[in-house]
Amino acid sequence: MNSRVDAVARAVDSFFFAPARAAPLVALRIGLAAVLLAQAVQVAPLFHALYHHRGLLRGPLKDTFDSSHLPSLGELLASPYESQILAALAFVYVVALIGMLLGWRTRASAGVAWLLHFVFMRLAPATNYGADDFANIFLFYATVAPGGAFLSLDHRAGRTRDVSRATTRLAIRVMQIHLCVTYLFSGVEKASGEQWRDGEAIWRSLVSQGYELFDFTWLAHVPWLAAVAGWLVLVIEIGYAVFIWPACTRRLWVAAVAAMHAGIGVFMGLHVFAAVMIVLTVAMFGVSAEPAVTSSHRRDFLPAPAATSGTVTRGQGPPPRRTG
Asked: What confidence tens digit (pLDDT) does each residue in 271-289 have?
């Protein structure tokens, strides 16, 4: 019994604390910063309309969508200088994302980007959806994770090192488990109703929810296709927490998740949401965190091959000659 307990304890310790490279965290930093910069460019023409207290959603109407847990930022910023304040915040936000992308003072840049991203979410709560929530959560993770270990200005300046650490493995595992729980709960919630099993949810998303970019009315003539698509979504999301871990199915599931979100981006126009979710899954499960085994490591940790007859090994003389 004790041996089994020890084996389980060693397996758990290895799963959470085996030294790991920061490659997934570097991919997350670069990918997430790039997507949010693209979103900022997309939002720029509507910036005043979305975030100013007297934009499309005027103050009292906008504040009704807000949570009562925090003071209304719309009211706090309502002043003769509100436009200048918003412009300054937007400038700092973009600079922080650029710093995060380039890996300059990576954690500080990620922290500033996370805080200002949250501020803008609070300023326009009616416009928030899954992309904003996930981006904000993983921006927070980026403030504590070593995402600037390499491919960064911090690494070039000698402020960071590409060293395998136990804390890096823990940070990666927390994010991986977060994604697994999210997809599992999302899939189970979808499966609890009939709309995803009979294809109605697919029909509504592509035809009657205001997302339609292409003419999918022909689905009315092949309703089984919408049902199959709905079941595929359920299998991918519920199976995420199981099949994303084994090496034999991981690539298939990463590709399936990426294809699912790419379809959402193309056919429903939710480009930012699709890009964010693809970045998260590809970074966390598509990029290896395992330390590279160099020749020196092999010499240190692998047993030397046994010498065979007639073979001269380095540092030894020729094999003894047979007599008699």
From this structure: 999 999 999 999 999 999 9
Check residue 321 and give its pLDDT: 47
Nearest to 193 by CA among 233, 243, 162: 233
Query: Tokens 């570097």 belong to which residue?
Result: 26
- What pTM was computed for the model? 0.84
Query: Alpha helices of 103-165 — where are they, by DSSP H?
Result: 106-123, 130-144, 153-156
What is the sign of the dihedral through the CA atoms of 185, 191, 192 and 193? Answer: positive
Q: How far apart are CA 85 and CA 100, in angstroms?
A: 22
Q: Please tell me whether residue 165 adopts helix, strand or coil conformation.
A: strand
Beta-carbon-side half-sphere exposure of residue 102 (alpha carbons within 13 Å): 10
Single out the residue of 71, 42, 59 nearest to residue 124, CA to CA. 59
Q: What is the pLDDT of residues 105-120, one digit of tens each?
A: 999 999 999 999 999 9
DSSP code of residue 54: B
CA-to-CA distance for 53 and 123, rounded, in angstroms?
8
DSSP character string of 75-118? HHH-STTHHHHHHHHHHHHHHHHHHHHHTSSHHHHHHHHHHHHH
**Residues with Cβ < 8 Å from 151, sequence gap 6 or more?**
26, 30, 103
The answer to whether 180 and 240 have CB atoms below 8 angstroms apart is: yes
**With 90 as the cut, is the pLDDT of residue 149 above it?**
yes
Contacts of 238 (CB under 8 A, 6+ apart): 183, 184, 187, 188, 191
